[in-house]
Structure formats: structure tokens, C-alpha cells
């Protein structure tokens, strides 16, 4: 159904977002985007969350998208607003996330020439285009609804990427009569894999005796978690989860192995006995297939090279361009992971192969990986164990780029989809707090805990003000060792005895939190942390408030 209405450009933006059931937007008002904010004033159906920096706004929208499984939307101004949100846009591309940024731009009559105007940026659209999957600039108010619809459609079609819509200042202020559609919630039809390739995959699966599964975050994006678990149990196949796919399956399932990288000494024997690899929703990037330098340097083990996968390999992915890029695929199943796995399950139920029970192998690998994590991350492991005892099973953990975050991506047990965030591919430090704020808004009934390092936390510390003003009850744990520890370890490994610019003078984090009108606590032992968390995470949502907890570690 369509209605002819007269709207300004700003009103067209807000009405279009509301028509597409966008309920939360993140941003900072500026003189260039005030027409959008004036329209938000009259729209109670959209909650605006006021960030303190555009990078924070972008990562809040990022965290929202990861947990909600729906687009996160951020509003920014011309020039510095766009450059500040560039990092979250790059992260959305790396991690295949539906992040929509709506930015203003200078009026079209500039013609690409430099006029020295407020917030002027050379080729703003070109900058954004390099970071996203879809970008566009409208020229008229009437184009705005169609452009927003197309941006959201693009992010629902195939592999999601970030999208960038640019609206000139004069278009935001202009008024035009247009047909604005009233939309129902709908999804683009999922792409089913080709039947011929499904049959080829089934032939390989039936002939295998010891298959192994590598699962990526694309499994959760497709809602294929249940199908993957059923298939793994049918095949008796070990399932390898990575840092970004840590929450695809319950970590306590006897077939599940969690690992940040590819420790060949630990995984090698299991993989060498495997006669087929089934890769689902993973591009098999270097984050999945190479042991991180930090773990190589700290473990003292000669783990180098990439994950030694079996020669026979079935690769399922929504993006044909990712299949075969790093490992040749015997069978390429291009399509939706849930539909592909459902087709394989149906075929195997008609004719099932004979598979070895590999649970003892999995148990041995898990023990070895646990010992490895203790060796590398020993000091933070008791703290993570305390967190796990206090956090509800469905609680959400956001692991920043810090030692505790790396340890969590390797060894912190999680049990539900959409319960763990570790943006490790772009690996931007300091994202933990804003990601957690967005995650909490996407799941207000669930406990959300951010694991931050002292150095990284300070990069977006201003978002404590957002947590206080918006009353977002995230618990932030700051692990304080007065150092950029991972960088310092690598520095000393590569340049023995020569450490520079990696030690820090940290603030009093408890006093800092209180300055932002947030409760701050310092705990000295893991059992103190567990007791405090049980008390705070057990509060009803209406009574919950943001909390910062400082955990002092050995200073480097």
C-alpha cells in the first residue's frame, strides 16, 4: 500500500527507516544532519542512541547487528563524521555485517571542486565506496525511500556487507511529494544450492569415514545452527569453531572444538586422520587457518603454516567468490547454509555412510588446547572461569582485542548462538565497550559483559557517557596490566630487550567510571569477581545499571 505525502529529505529518511521496521539508530547530531534529527523528534517508534564519537556509534550499530541479526543503522555528518565511522564500516565488510551508514554531503553544485566549505572532504563517496558493499548518493528527496530500500535489500542478499547512503544538505532540507510505501517485515528468498552439486557432495559424504567440519559465522547468519548440529551428530564429525564462530554450537558438546587459530601440533593428528572436510559459512581466511603470532611466540612451539585440511573438501558459502580462494574445493555448494545443510541431511537420511566415533579424539584435542590456553594466558584464565560461573548460559560476552579477549576466543565456553563477539579480522582495538552497548540494546533481557584491556578501553572510553545517559546495563571488565601486552610480547619476541611505547600509565578506572556517573568496583581475586557478577547480573532488567569492574593484573 502506498501513500502520497509531502516530506522533507530528513522526514523521508526517518519515514523510510520506520517503514522498514528500524527501531534503533545510533549517531551524533551536527549542523549538517539536523533535518534528520528534527524528523526523529516526531517519530516515537525509533529510539536514537546518542554516542560520543562516530566510531562508537558505528560499533554500537555493529554490535546491534551481530546480536539482533538485523541491520544496524548509524547517522553521521559530512567529512569528519564519515572518516570517524570508516573503521566500523571496514569491520562490517571484514565480518560480513549489515551496517547501514547514512551520511550527509555538501550540495551537488560543488561539482567535485574544493570550495573550502565546512566539513568538506575530498571524494567522500569514493572513500566510503572503498569500504562497503553498496554505496549511493541521492539527488532528490523522492529518491530517498527507494535508496534506503535498496541499501537494506543489498544487505539481505548474499553475503551482507556494510552500506553507505549519502544525502546532500540541500536535498535534506528540500520538500517533495512522493509515494512512501508501507512495508511489512520480509526477507529476500534464500538461495538454494544446485541439486547436482548437492548430489556430488552427498557422494563424498557417504564415501567418507572420518569427516571433519569447519564452521564459520555464516552458519549463525543463516540460522543454520540446528541443522549443523544434526549433521555433525549424523556424521560423528568433529566441528572446529574459530574466534568469530565461537558461538555457532554449544561449546560443551562432545564433538565441538574451539580454537582461535590453527595450532598444527594440536590439531594436526586429528586432521591427518580425517578423510574429508566440510566447510560451512567460512571463507577460510588466515584468521582461521594460521596460528596467531602471539600464540606462536608465547607457546614456544613450532606451529607455522596453515591449517592442514584433507584434500577432499566440500565448501558451502553464500558467496561464490570465497570458495576455493585459499583451499581448492572438490565440491562448491553456493547458497544459503541452512538450505544446503537441510538438503544434505535429507539425502543422508535416505542413504547414510558408515562413520567412526571420534569423540575420544575430540576430547584429547580439547584437553591439549586447554593446556595450551593455560600456558599462554595463564594469569587471566581464573578470571574467565569466575565469569563463566556467574554468567547465565545465554549471557553475551564481547571480547575486545586484549589478552583476556584472546583467551576467551580460545577457551571461554559459550552455549547459544549470538552470545559471543570477537571482531578479530580487522582487529581494531578498543571496540569492546561500544560493541557491548549495541549488543545490549539488541538483547535487553540478556546479561552482556565486555572484556577490555586497559589500553584499548581508553580509545572509546567516552561511550561510558552513552551507557550512563541511555541507562544501558552493560558490565565492563577492564583488565589492567599497564601495558599493550600483546604488542609488547611480539615486540620483545622480534626485537629482544628492545621495548618502546608499550607500557602505560593507567588512570584510576574506578574513579573514572564514577566521573561518568557509573558505578565502579575493583576486585582483587576471581571469587570476588564471581560474587559481584552474580549479584549484578541477577538483577531484573528494570533495576540493572551499567557497571565497570577493574581487574588488576601483573604489570609488565
What features would you describe in this structure?
With 556 residues, the chain is of the alpha/beta class. The protein has three domains: 2-181, 3-Layer(aba) Sandwich (Rossmann fold); 195-368, Rossmann fold, CATH 3.40.50.1220; 378-552, Thiamin diphosphate (ThDP)-binding fold, Pyr/PP domains (Rossmann fold), CATH 3.40.50. It has 24 helices and 20 strands. It has a six-stranded parallel β-sheet, with helices on both faces. A six-stranded parallel β-sheet has the order 11-10-9-12-13-14. Strands 16-15-17-18-20-19 form a six-stranded parallel β-sheet, with helices on both faces. Helix 7 links the parallel strand 6 and strand 7. The radius of gyration is 24 Å and the shape is globular. The termini are far apart. The mean pLDDT is 92.
Give the key terms.
Rossmann fold, 556 residues, 6-stranded parallel β-sheet, 20 strands, single chain, alpha/beta, 24 helices
Put the structure in a nutshell.
Helix content is 41%, strand content 17%. With 556 residues, the chain is of the alpha/beta class. Helix 14 (293-299) packs across helix 22.
Amino acid at each position: 500500500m502506498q501513500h502520497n505525502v509531502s516530506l522533507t529529505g530528513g522526514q523521508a529518511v526517518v519515514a523510510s527507516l520506520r517503514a522498514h521496521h528500524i527501531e534503533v539508530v545510533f549517531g551524533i547530531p551536527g549542523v549538517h544532519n539536523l533535518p534528520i534529527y528534527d524528523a526523529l523528534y516526531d517519530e516515537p517508534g525509533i529510539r536514537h542512541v546518542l554516542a560520543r564519537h562516530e566510531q562508537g556509534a558505528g560499533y554500537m550499530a555493529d554490535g546491534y547487528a551481530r546480536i539482533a541479526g538485523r541491520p544496524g543503522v548509524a547517522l553521521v555528518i559530512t567529512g569528519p563524521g564519515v572518516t570517524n565511522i570508516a573503521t566500523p564500516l571496514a569491520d562490517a565488510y571484514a565480518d560480513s555485517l549489515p551496517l547501514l551508514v547514512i551520511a550527509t554531503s555538501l550540495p551537488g553544485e560543488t561539482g567535485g571542486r574544493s570550495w573550502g566549505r565546512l566539513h568538506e572532504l575530498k571524494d567522500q563517496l569514493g572513500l566510503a565506496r572503498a569500504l562497503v558493499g553498496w554505496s549511493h548518493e541521492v539527488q532528490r528527496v523522492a529518491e530517498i525511500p527507494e535508496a534506503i530500500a535498496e541499501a537494506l535489500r543489498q544487505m539481505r542478499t548474499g553475503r551482507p556487507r556494510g552500506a553507505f547512503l549519502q544525502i546532500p544538505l540541500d536535498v535534506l532540507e528540500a520538500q517533495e511529494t512522493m509515494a512512501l510505501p508501507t512495508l511489512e517485515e520480509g526477507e529476500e528468498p534464500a538461495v538454494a544450492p544446485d541439486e547436482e552439486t548437492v548430489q556430488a557432495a552427498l557422494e563424498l559424504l557417504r564415501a567418507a569415514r572420518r569427516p571433519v567440519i569447519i564452521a564459520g559465522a555464516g552458519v549463525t547468519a543463516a540460522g543454520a545452527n540446528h541443522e549443523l548440529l544434526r549433521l555433525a551428530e549424523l556424521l560423528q564429525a568433529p566441528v572446529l569453531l574459530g574466534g568469530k564462530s565461537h558461538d555457532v554450537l554449544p561449546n560443551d558438546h562432545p564433538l565441538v572444538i574451539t580454537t582461535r587459530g590453527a595450532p598444527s601440533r594440536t590439531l594436526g593428528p586429528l586432521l591427518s586422520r580425517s578423510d574429508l572436510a566440510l566447510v560451512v559459512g567460512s571463507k577460510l581466511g588466515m584468521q582461521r587457518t594460521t596460528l596467531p603470532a602471539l600464540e606462536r611466540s608465547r607457546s614456544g612451539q613450532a606451529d607455522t603454516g596453515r591449517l592442514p585440511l584433507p584434500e577432499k573438501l566440500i565448501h558451502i558459502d553464500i558467496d561464490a567468490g570465497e570458495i576455493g580462494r585459499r583451499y581448492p574445493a572438490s565440491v562448491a555448494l553456493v547458497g544459503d547454509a541452512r538450505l544446503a545443510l537441510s538438503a544434505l541431511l535429507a539425502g543422508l537420511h535416505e542413504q547414510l555412510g558408515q562413520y567412526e566415533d571420534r569423540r575420544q579424539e575430540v576430547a584429547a584435542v580439547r584437553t591439549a588446547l586447554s593446556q595450551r590456553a593455560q600456558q599462554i594466558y595463564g594469569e587471566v584464565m581464573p578470571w574467565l572461569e569466575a565469569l563463566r560461573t556467574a554468567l547465565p548460559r545465554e549471557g553475551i560476552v564481547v571480547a575486545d582485542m586484549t589478552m583476556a579477549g584472546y583467551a576467551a576466543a580460545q577457551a571461554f565456553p559459550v552455549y547459544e548462538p549470538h552470545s559471543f563477539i570477537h571482531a578479530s579480522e580487522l582487529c581494531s582495538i578498543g571496540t569492546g565497550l561500544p560493541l557491548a552497548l549495541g549488543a545490549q540494546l539488541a538483547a535487553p533481557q540478556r546479561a552482556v559483559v565486555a572484556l577490555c584491556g586497559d589500553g584499548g578501553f581508553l580509545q572509546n572510553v567516552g561511550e561510558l557517557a552513552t551507557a550512563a545517559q541511555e541507562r544501558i546495563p552493560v558490565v565492563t571488565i577492564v583488565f589492567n596490566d599497564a601495558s599493550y601486552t600483546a604488542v609488547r610480547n611480539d615486540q620483545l619476541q622480534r626485537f629482544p630487550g628492545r621495548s618502546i611505547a608499550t607500557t602505560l600509565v593507567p588512570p584510576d578506572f574506578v574513579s573514572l567510571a564514577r566521573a561518568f556517573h557509573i558505578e565502579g568496583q575493583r576486585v582483587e581475586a576471581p571469587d570476588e569477581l564471581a560474587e559481584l557478577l552474580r549479584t549484578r547480573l541477577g538483577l531484573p532488567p528494570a533495576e540493572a545499571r551499567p557497571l565497570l569492574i577493574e581487574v588488576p593484573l601483573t604489570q609488565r
